[in-house]
Amino acid sequence: MTGLHAPPRQGKVPPMNEMSKPATIPSPALLARFVAIVGDKYAITDTRAQEPYLVEMRQRWHGRSAVVLRPGSVAEVSQILKLANETGTAIVPQGGNTGLVGGQIPHHGEVVLSVNRLDRIREVDAVSNTITCEAGVTLQRAREAAAAVDRLYPQLLPSEGTCTIGGNLSTNAGGTQALAYGIARSHALGIEVVLADGRVLNNLNKLKKDNTGYDLKNLFIGAEGTLGIITAAVLRLVPRPRSTETAWLGVPSPEAAVELLGISTERTAGGVTSFELLERMGVEVVLKHGANVRYPLREQYPYSVLIELSSQARSGLRAVLEEILAEGHERGFVLDATIADSLEQGKAFWRIREMFGEMQRHEGASIKHDVSVPVAAIPAFIREANAAVVKLIPGARPLPFGHVGDGNIHYNVTQPVGTNEAEFMKREEDVHDAVFAVVAKYNGSISAEHGIGIVKRDRLPQVKDKVAIELMRTLKRTLDPEGILNPGKVL
Prior knowledge:
Layout: H1 28-38, E1 43-44, H2 47-54, E2 68-69, H3 74-87, E3 91-94, E4 111-114, E5 121-125, E6 130-134, H4 139-147, E7 151-152, H5 165-171, H6 178-181, H7 184-187, E8 188-194, E9 200-203, H8 217-220, E10 229-236, E11 238-239, E12 243-251, H9 254-268, E13 272-279, H10 280-289, E14 303-311, H11 317-330, E15 336-339, H12 343-354, E16 366-367, E17 370-372, H13 378-392, E18 397-403, E19 408-414, H14 421-425, H15 428-441, H16 460-463, H17 466-479
Helix pairs in contact: 1-3, 9-11, 13-15
């Protein structure tokens, strides 16, 4: 993996809290028992070989572990957790290691349980519109398997080649098509979970209607591996669109973007699959530092919108998009626009969007937020958050972007030009305070799709309903009384 042996950007190791117990570092004898479950070939103890499992993708944290276990079956996962529960050994589950809030990193020497060998697609049922995947199947493979039977698995993330189904469900991942199809929780019909004591909850049903008591699967989706380890899931499929149209627009403001979203939604009756907003300075950063990218319009505008429409009709969609753009232009919401003339040109538009967050590192340190507010409040949120951040740190560069259709804004703040990176990052909590205050004003969420992990763990009680926090703690104590599952994360 490129760059893994360069000195990582070291983040602050989070302290354990009252819901967590110090990790039991396995003795040589106990370590041998864990290794015996998966076999020497699938137990990684060499520190250099462990690196891909210990370093977060942005290299913000570098963990440590006595062993990385790579079980190849649900039975092996069950045996590992049974032994861990009996001996008080902390376990950190890990999928593709693409998480952005530190939830998949062993910060205190915990044993890592990687699901990447649980990679079978057990069944594709085109009649029932379902696919049954093990937790280590990558999102890309799931989408390809669906496409092979002329179906669509409707979740799309830039990290699709690396992120896994188990990780996506554990963090309740969103993505660029959540506007039309929903987030990870929306796609799961049934799941298979190994509990902390090694018992296996088999809830792999394909049913859209199953009104037989508590919906247990949703306890584990979004729980970030703190209540159980998801080992497989039945996921819903949808018909593949017969036509898709993509356009890049220049717009004067977030207000204009929200108005245009309304027009688009009305004209297509659910056919808007993506609606992304990008701030001008952030686009310029991508053009400056990104390879093989070209701005689609003749000149830059304050904001850009990337819109994608899909339809089951084989023709007529382009005319609908042209009508939307014409009305938007007439009402002053669209300043300029271009429609992709080919699949490749559409991919070129998306390449700018996909590089938006990544390229900001070339401009220095960046303080990142993954927040959501009601769609109607997006313009006010961006305006007020920008003002608050610049007042706090003169010269700071807010670069908001994200999924306007579902209210999810990735609100990144890059350091002022010419300033010291370390000094800027010392203000991280102050910036969080300023941004989250605006989020709270509009009844939003401090985590839209990335999860809580360690980054927002200590803030969660400040923003979550007190009774909700009490119930979450009760569930944790009930399902994981020994506190072995991903300790120190979420709660």
